[in-house]
Amino acid sequence: MNHYDVPRGIDVLRVFCGPDGRHGNALGVVRDGRSHPDEASRQQLARQLGFSETVFVDDPERGLVDIHTPGLRLPFAGHPLVGAAWLLDLEVLELPVGDVFARQDGEFTWITARPEWAPPRMFQQYATADEVEALPGPPPGEGWLYAWAWEDDAAGRIRARAFPRRGDGIVEDEATGAAALLLSAHLGRALNITQGRGSQILTAPAPDGTVEVGGRVLMAARAETRTAASDMTVAG
């Protein structure tokens, strides 16, 4: 059992949890963005936390948020927005790329976004899901890579793993909403993706070119406490 040890005022969520409630990608949420008013301090905190992304809430009523990895600021990212929409219970999130619409559907939180908002990804398809499962680490090469294979083509079920390969300490991304969005748009169909150790991401492309991305979100550590138990290992 691992523990998150984070400063006060930061919630830690697990986004895109599996059907059993386990796994999911860790996300730090700074509810009061004023506590880190400039980009340098935000970048420092994101690096300190070591999550694949940390989101800063600049206006909880408007849904104005700012997303950082340990090494850079992102105009858009999937799992931070799904997590923020769940935590803040909002229908719209404001980003530099545009408004992201969100909805709750039972145990799932969904966001709707345009593929062109997502950072570019390289996709490498494998012949079988077992090959993806057996990868010992990032394949050789440079650039953000999404390794995937069909588990069940007819049912739209995919096995995937994500390797940022950007030198910021995140060796493997447990669950990547932006990559799932791009793959769904590329294939032109709804997907049920199992990524990482057992995280689940759902997608649904729409006729207008947008794609919905959804998953389960659970609280791992509340802002009021300094540590909380979780089965999720912090990347890096």
What coarse outline follows from CA principal-axis ratios?
globular
- Rounded mean pLDDT is 92
Uncertain regions: pLDDT < 50 for 5+ in a row? Answer: 225-236
Q: Structural class of the secondary elements?
A: alpha+beta
CATH class of the largest domain: Alpha Beta
Largest sheet: 14 strands, mixed
Count of DSSP-assigned helices: 4
Order of helices and strands: EEEHEEEHEEEEHEEHEEEE
Number of strands: 16
Q: What's the CATH topology label of the largest domain? A: Diaminopimelate Epimerase, Chain A, domain 1
CATH architecture of the largest domain: Roll
Strand content: 35-45%
Protein described:
There is one protein chain. The protein has 236 residues and is of the alpha+beta class. It has 2 domains: 104 residues, Diaminopimelate Epimerase, Chain A, domain 1, CATH 3.10.310.10; 93 residues, Diaminopimelate Epimerase, Chain A, domain 1 (Roll). 16% of the residues lie in helices and 41% in strands. It has 4 helices and 16 strands. Strand 13 and strand 14 form a beta hairpin. It is globular. It comes from Streptomyces arboris. InterPro entries: Phenazine_PhzF-like (IPR003719). One of its GO terms (molecular function) is catalytic activity. Pfam families: PhzC-PhzF.
